Structures are given as C-alpha cells and as structure tokens.
Amino acid sequence: xxxxxxxxxxxxxxxxxxxxxxxxxxxxxxxxxxDLGARVIxxxxxxxxxxxxxxxxxxxxxxxxxxxxxxxxxxxxxxxxPRARTATLALADRADVxxxxxxxGTMQRLGLGYEDLAARNPALVxxxxxxxxxxxxxxxxxxxxxxxxxxxGLMSITGPEDGPPTRVGASLGDLVPALxxxxxxxxxxxxxxxxxxxxxxxxxxxxxxFAVLENALARYQASGQNPSPLGNRHPSITPFSTFAAAxxxxxxxxxxxALFARLCRAxxxxxxxxDPRFASNALRTxxxxxxxxxxxxxxxxxxxxxxxxxxxxxxxxxxxxxxISDLLEDEHLRERGMLTQLGLDGESGSITIPGTPLRxxxxxxxxxxxxxxxxxxxxxxxxxLAGIDxxxxxxxxxDAVAGDGGAAGS
Length: 410
Description:
- This protein is 38% helix and 14% strand.
- Strand 12 (339-343) and strand 13 form a beta hairpin.
- It has 18 helices and 13 strands.
- The longest helix is centred in the middle third of the chain and has 24 residues, at 172-195.
- The chain is elongated, with a radius of gyration of 25 Å.
- The protein has helices at residues 25-35, 63-68, 82-94, 106-109, 114-118, 145-152, 172-195, 205-211, 216-223, 257-266, 271-274, 281-286, 288-299, 304-313, 324-327, 331-335, 378-384, 390-402; strands spanning 16-19, 39-44, 57-58, 61-62, 73-76, 97-100, 125-130, 199-204, 240-244, 249-253, 318-320, 339-343, 350-354.
- By secondary structure, it is α/β, with parallel strands linked by helices.
- It has a six-stranded parallel sheet with strand order 5-2-1-6-7-8, sandwiched between helices. A three-stranded antiparallel sheet has the order 9-10-11, with helices on one face. A two-stranded antiparallel ribbon has the order 3-4.
C-alpha cells in the first residue's frame, strides 16, 4: 500500500503553496503539504530563514534547515523593495495556499495581509500560524516551543514523578500546530471546491497544544488537584509504564484485565492476578507502586531483549526503549519506507531522515531528496510565475545583492 509506481499520484498535485514561514512550525506544515504533492515556493528574506544558521551542521550546512525544507523552491527577496513586493503579489495571484508565521500585523504592514491578497485572489487559502493567534491579550508576544510548552501546561505534566516540570524532548509546541495547519489547509481546499472561495485561517501554537492535553483538564476538574509529572506511567491505566529489567527499562502496557492476567502468567507470577489489590484497573492504579515492585522483581531475572520476545509472544504490548541510533537499523521502519535519504550540497553526501508516514493505495509517497540553497530558484520562479522580464529581473537581483539584505521583519 502506498508504493510508488507508474500509476501512483500525489494527492495535492497542481496545488501551489507560497511559504513565508521560517524555523519550524510553518516549514514543517509546508513540508508536509509538499509531501502530499503541493509545489512549495519558499519566500525568504535576503538573509534567509534564520534556521539556516541553526545546528547541527555538516560542512557548514544546517541539517536543522535541510530536514524540514526538502523539496521546496527558494525565492529570496527584500520585501521592503516595492519591486519585490510587486513580484510577490503576482506570485500570490497564482497561489492556492499561503502560509506565514510572522507576528500578527507583519504581513499586513508589507501589503501582503489576507485582505490585500484575497481582494486580488478570492480563492486563496491563507494560513497565519503564530504563537498566540491574531487576537487576544497574548497575540503580540513572540513564541518558541519551550514558551508554548510552559504556557500550555504540557510542561507541568511532563517529567519524573515528584520532579520539576520538563520540556518534551521533541518540539511539540511547533509540531502540533504544524499538523493542525495541514488539517486546516486541506479542509479549506475541500470547502473551496464547492464555494470557489478561500479563507483566512488563524492558528495559534498555544491553542493547538492546549487542545491536545488529553484528559488533564478533566482530571483537575474531577479531583480538584493539579495533575503533576508521573514519569512514564499513565495516570489512569496500570500497568502502563517502563519497568526495570536486568539491563535496562522495558515498556509494558496492559489496558485491560485480560492483558494483565496474561502478563502475570508470562512473568511466572500467576498469584498477582488473584491479589485483591490488583483486581481491577482502578485498584491497580491506586496500588501502582506495589505492583511495579512486584513486576520488576520478576523482570530482573532477564534482559530487555529476552522479556520483549517473551511478552510479545504472549500477546502483551511491550517494547525496548530505543536509542536514536537504534532507529537507523530498525527493520520495521526500513520496510515501511520511513528511513529515507536527504542529499546535501557539494560532497557532503546525505543523511537519513524520517520519510512521510502517509500511506494510501495509489499514493506516491516518495519525498524530495534535498532542500534548496538560499535564492536558488528566484530567477526561474519570478520569470515563470510572476511574468518578470529578463531586464527587470536582472535589475531587481542586482539591487538585492548590492543592498543591505532587508528582511520581512518579525
């Protein structure tokens, strides 16, 4: 399913996206749209997306930037130059989607706000992805992942039990809104098929992460107690955590009584299933510390590899805790096409990055194999889509090189 072939197609073939975003949330959103088949033209200031200067690096190239900008075309412009702005308006006239993640008001000051562009191109789907949305008392604040994780409450429920609030190891403050952005754009494109009109999507990072706090808000309202970090265990399902074996931790999840009874048998600890303290999920959760000790007393007799094999054979969800290096050799990820190569400039070779998890019958899930150099496609795109003649283009590019590198602002 989802294999590439002569008859495979991309879902968003023919969709043109103008990407005014930078760093992570917006670029991950537009990268995903590109994986779905959209043509993504990245509009960068003359100094480039600032993530081009963020590590890790190989031979001076930012792997941070490369990993979320694959397959895009880079057009580099000083949007404070009226000629560059005119060219950008011509590109927007042709676009289906525009994505930007500047602070509210920046695009409007440049004459590139939704109202400006929709008056010329009513079918445009315009996504503004900002830290706190276009309205509200926080709207003028800057935001990064750690700020959103803190304000959303996600940090307050993450970390070791009785430990300090902890940032989740991946930048969910950016990645969750990025995926909500993809959902919103796809929904707006679907609606446009019947109405002929686009829309302005106002998406906040804080709103997005708050929306995925699962049942934390409900737990507070039910108990009157603020949820706190619990390490790896679940607040209401037990056993559902990592447990120490002889050589390290193994994750075990038993979401019902039948799985718990099966676990007890696999551990050679049948009496645990009859222990009244563990007779139901609610009781197991109330007595989780005692149950964890009982489970670990059995697990210490074997390695994580031994127990993973035994528990999986018994039908119990279990997993070793992979290091990142382990993922590069994972046979399942490899078979699923999730390990793909991203080419780098010059003689830097390539790195392995995650492929797209999107799979469907007849869908071509191959992804682009490199990110663009800064301004690599400026001349070609402006000639093709903005209709700029060679003389005007040469003047614009020469003045840009000679200028002060003015950016769009933030």
